[in-house]
Write a structure and sequence with these properties.
With about 375 residues, this protein is of the alpha/beta class. It folds into 2 domains: about 260 residues, Zn peptidases (Aminopeptidase, 3-Layer(aba) Sandwich), CATH 3.40.630.10; about 110 residues, Alpha-Beta Plaits, CATH 3.30.70.360. It is built from 11 helices and 16 strands. The strands form 4 sheets. The protein has an 8-stranded mixed beta sheet with strand order 1-2-4-3-5-16-6-15, with helices on both faces.
C-alpha cells in the first residue's frame, strides 16, 4: 500500500496529538489551525480556512489538468462531550471532551493522504481535501455546502470514510443507496394543572399524560410505518416536578427519530404531533410539539460506490471488501455533501473494542495505512494520468 514506516509514524503522531486536544462542534480552532499548517507545509496549491465557520480546505493540482475533473475527500474534525476512560498516554487533556467517534483518525488519515498526493501529483485533475467541523450534531457538512464548498472548488465527486469497530483491520464495507438513517429531534411540552400530591383529583397530571404519550409513540413503527420500511422512535428523556408530594404544572420529554425514506420521515413528524396533542387533549391537558429536521439519510450513489468498492478491493482483495452491507440506523452529516454531489462513504475496519460514542473507545492506529492508501487511490485511480 506504499505507506512507509516513517510516514506511518508521522500520521500516528498527528492522530494522537489531535486525540489529546479534542474540540467540540464548530469550536475546532486548534484542530483547524493544525490542519491548515500541515497542508501549507505539504505544499498544497491553496489552503482556505473558515469554510462553514471553521472548516479547512486544501487544493492539490495534479501533474496534468487535461481532465478538468475535481475529486473531494472529506474528514470530520470535532469530538464529543464525553469524559474519556481509555487510560491511553494520549488521552484527552480537556475534561469532559474526547474523540469518541474516530474523527482524530479520519483527520490524520486525510492529512497523510494529502501529503502523499502533494508529493506525487500523479493524477490528471485536482484533489480537494475537506476538513469539516461540527459533524456531531452541529450540521457542519450543511454549513460547508451552504458556504459554497462544492461550487467554489468545482468539486465533481466527493468521498469520505468512517471508522467501524468490530470490522477487522484491513477490511472495508459500504453499499449503494441508503447507508445511514436520517436523524430528527423532537421535544414535547405538556401543560396540565398542578396540585398537592394528596389531591390528585383537582389536578391534570402532566406526568401521567406524558407516560401515556410515551407509550403511544411506540405504536408508530409497529402500526403506522410500512413493514418494509425501517424506522426508530426513541424517547431519550422525560422531566417534570421536583418533589414527591407535588403534582407539577408541566412536564417535558424529548427524543429522536431515524428513517431512510422521505415519506416515512414526514410520517414520523405527523404521527408524533398527532399522538401527543390528542392524548393530551383526552386527559384535559395540552401538548406542544417542536420537531426539528437535523440530518437527511446518507444515500451513496451507485456509480461512485462501485468505483469506491473497486478501489478498496484493489488494495486489500475482494474477500475483504463488502459492497452490499446492511444500512445502519445511525446518522452522518456527510449526507449533506452527498445531496450536493455524487459520492460515497466507506466504512474502514477498527478491529475489536468499544463502539463509537463510548468512553473507552479509541481509534486503532493500525487502520491508518489502509485509510491513507484508500484516499490516495481514490484520486489516482479516479483521475488517471494518460
Amino acid at each position: 500500500m506504499q505507506v512507509t514506516d516513517a510516514d506511518y509514524a508521522d500520521v500516528v503522531e498527528w492522530r494522537r496529538d489531535l486525540h489529546a486536544h479534542p474540540e467540540l462542534q464548530f469550536e475546532v480552532h486548534r484542530t483547524a489551525a493544525f490542519v491548515a499548517q500541515k497542508l501549507t507545509e505539504f505544499g498544497c496549491d491553496e489552503v482556505v480556512t473558515g469554510i462553514g465557520k471553521t472548516g479547512v480546505v486544501g487544493v492539490i493540482r495534479g501533474q496534468k489538468q487535461a481532465s478538468g475533473r475535481v475529486i473531494g475527500l472529506r474528514a470530520d474534525m470535532d469530538a464529543l462531550p464525553i469524559e474519556e476512560e481509555t487510560g491511553a498516554p494520549w488521552a484527552s487533556k480537556t475534561k469532559g471532551v474526547m474523540h469518541a467517534c474516530g474523527h482524530d483518525g479520519h483527520t490524520a488519515i486525510l492529512l497523510g493522504a494529502a501529503r502523499e498526493l502533494a508529493r506525487s501529483r500523479a493524477f490528471d485533475g485536482t484533489a480537494v481535501v475537506i476538513f469539516q467541523p461540527a459533524e456531531e450534531g452541529g450540521g457542519g457538512g450543511k454549513a460547508m455546502v451552504e458556504d459554497g464548498l462544492m461550487d467554489r472548488f468545482a468539486i465533481n465527486e466527493v468521498y469520505a470514510m468512517h471508522t467501524e469497530p468490530g470490522l477487522p483491520i484491513g477490511q472495508f464495507m459500504t453499499a449503494s443507496g441508503p447507508l445511514a438513517a436520517s436523524a430528527d429531534g423532537f421535544r414535547i411540552r405538556i401543560d396540565g394543572k398542578g396540585a398537592h400530591g394528596a389531591s390528585p383529583h383537582v389536578s391534570v397530571d402532566p406526568l401521567v399524560v406524558g407516560a401515556n404519550i410515551l407509550l403511544a409513540l411506540q405504536t408508530i413503527v409497529s402500526r403506522n410505518v410500512h413493514p418494509r420500511q425501517c424506522a426508530v422512535v426513541t424517547v431519550g428523556w422525560m422531566a417534570g416536578g421536583k418533589a414527591g408530594n407535588v403534582i407539577p404544572q408541566t412536564a417535558e420529554m424529548g427524543g429522536t427519530t431515524r428513517t431512510f425514506d422521505p415519506a416515512t420521515r414526514d410520517l414520523m413528524e405527523k404521527r408524533i404531533t398527532d399522538i401527543a396533542t390528542h392524548v393530551a387533549t383526552a386527559y384535559g391537558a395540552t401538548a406542544t410539539v417542536t420537531y426539528k429536521h437535523m440530518f437527511p439519510p446518507v444515500v451513496n450513489h451507485g456509480k461512485q460506490t462501485a468505483f469506491a468498492v473497486d478501489v478498496a478491493r484493489s488494495l486489500v482483495g475482494d474477500d475483504k471488501v463488502n459492497g452490499t452491507m446492511e444500512p445502519l440506523m445511525g446518522s452522518e452529516d456527510f449526507a449533506f455533501m452527498l445531496e450536493a454531489r455524487p459520492g460515497n462513504i466507506m466504512l474502514i475496519g477498527n478491529g475489536n473494542g468499544p463502539s463509537v460514542h463510548e468512553a473507552g473507545y479509541d481509534f486503532n492506529d493500525a487502520a491508518i495505512s489502509y485509510g491513507v492508501a484508500y484516499f490516495r487511490a481514490l484520486v489516482e485511480r479516479g483521475l488517471p494520468l494518460a
